[in-house]
Design brief:
Elements (H helix, E strand, L loop, with lengths): L5 E18 L4 E14 L4 E6 L3 H4 L3 H16 L7 H11 L4 H19 L3 H4 L7 E3 L1 E4 L4 H14 L3 E5 L4 H15 L5 E4 L6 H11 L6 E3 L7 H10 L4 E3 L8 H8 L4 E4 L1 H4 L2 H13 L3 E4 L6 H12 L13 H4 L11 E2 L2 E3 L17
Parallel strand pairs: 5-6, 6-7, 7-8, 8-9, 9-10, 10-11
Antiparallel strand pairs: 1-2, 2-3, 4-13, 12-13
Helix pairs in contact: 2-3, 2-4, 6-7, 7-8, 8-9
């Protein structure tokens, strides 16, 4: 009898406090809800998944994830083989449309189980290790100018080499913010801007055409997620590469970005698009179409971050600095007991079986 069969699925919602308010153009928060999934197989192997979606960003919450899994996904997944990934995704998509963060937690936990079952790290299940060390970027959230500059300098001292700055306030505020950060950190530091859909396409062109004088690595999601034509227009008017984030929230979203050439780069978030399975498919679509990619964060802590690390380690096309470890440092507490190895602005991919982490089991008690 094949013992790699799903015996039980548990979901726990954990509200974790942030060290300070996290603010982007879409929302502000002082705590974050995390949905943690634990999958148990018939042979006693346990795997973990995590997602921490912001409702304004993704239309899901930790609480909706628990509801969706308990009511719609768990009943159809009990008895399925953990290795039948495409079949499991088909079953989940048939059971409920969308809810990709909920499906991500299941998918990540399945890979953790598969890796532990075979005694191999997850990256080996995703195509093997393309890179061992992953370049990191730090994200400066919306706050007053003095604190933004102080945080940027502090993170550069810690070893981060790329800064991502949240914009989408007003044209005047954004211009002064980027100008002052550039003056404070010098010319050699790559600066990526992220508007989180903060502007319409006309305003985006006006704002970023002015800000380009300060030298930008890229501009992320300048317009609303649905405005693909608007993003394409912004791309045509600026010299700086354009990155899509919210516009690629599922596997099929990426097709239109590629077809329209509406961006140059895609931010692939494992916990947003449906998990490691879908993230890899998006990465492959981008690679064959000549795009490049980065892996971002929804403020997941240890479990979700580990999944993103294995994804980047195994994916050639995800070759830009990644802010996938943002959630851990922003929270007061984590859900794992071990720490990721970081040196010189890079995180080292774990080599232990599964995700290579030690989850704090007390969260399920």
């Amino acid at each position: 009898m094949d013992k790699s069969i799903i015996k039980d699925i548990e979901v726990k919602v954990v509200e974790l406090p942030l060290k300070k308010q996290w603010k982007i153009s879409l929302y502000a928060a002082k705590t974050r809800g995390h949905a943690v999934v634990r999958i148990l197989t018939e042979d006693g192997i346990t795997g973990y998944g995590e997602a921490s979606p912001a409702p304004a960003f993704m239309g899901e919450t930790a609480d909706t994830i628990k509801l969706v899994i308990d009511k719609y996904l768990k009943p159809i997944l009990i008895g399925k083989n953990v290795f039948d990934i495409d079949l499991i995704h088909e079953k989940m998509n048939s059971a409920i449309y969308g809810n990709y963060a909920a499906k991500s937690t299941i998918d990540i936990a399945l890979y953790d189980v598969m890796g532990k079952t075979l005694g191999v790290p997850v990256y080996k299940l995703l195509g093997g290790k393309y890179r061992s060390e992953i370049d990191l970027s730090w994200v400066v959230g919306m706050q007053d100018l003095e604190n933004s500059i102080e945080e940027a300098k502090e993170k550069l001292k810690e070893g981060y080499k790329t800064l991502k700055v949240k914009v989408g306030n007003t044209p005047e505020i954004d211009y002064k913010l980027v100008k002052d950060i550039r003056n404070a950190v010098g010319e050699g530091v790559p600066i990526r801007l992220d508007a989180n859909q903060g502007y319409d396409y006309r305003t985006a062109v006006d704002v970023f055409r002015r800000i380009e004088e300060f030298g930008l690595e890229s501009i992320e999601q300048p317009v609303e997620r649905w405005d693909i034509e608007g993003m394409k227009y912004v791309k045509s008017q600026l010299e700086t590469p354009i990155m899509a984030d919210e516009s690629v929230s599922s596997l099929h979203d990426v097709n239109r970005i590629i077809k329209e050439r509406a961006a140059d780069i895609v931010n692939i978030k494992v916990g947003k698009v449906g998990g490691l399975t879908i993230a890899k498919k998006i990465a492959q679509a981008l690679e064959i179409s000549g795009f490049t990619a980065t892996a971002g964060s929804n403020l997941e802590v240890g479990i979700g971050s580990a999944a993103s690390i294995h994804f980047v380690a195994s994916s050639k096309v995800v070759n830009m600095p990644n802010d996938l470890l943002l959630g851990g440092p922003l929270h007061k507490y984590d859900l794992i007991k071990n720490e990721f190895e970081i040196k010189d602005g890079r995180v080292i991919c774990p080599d232990k079986p599964g995700l290579g982490i030690e989850v704090d089991e007390s969260i399920f008690k």
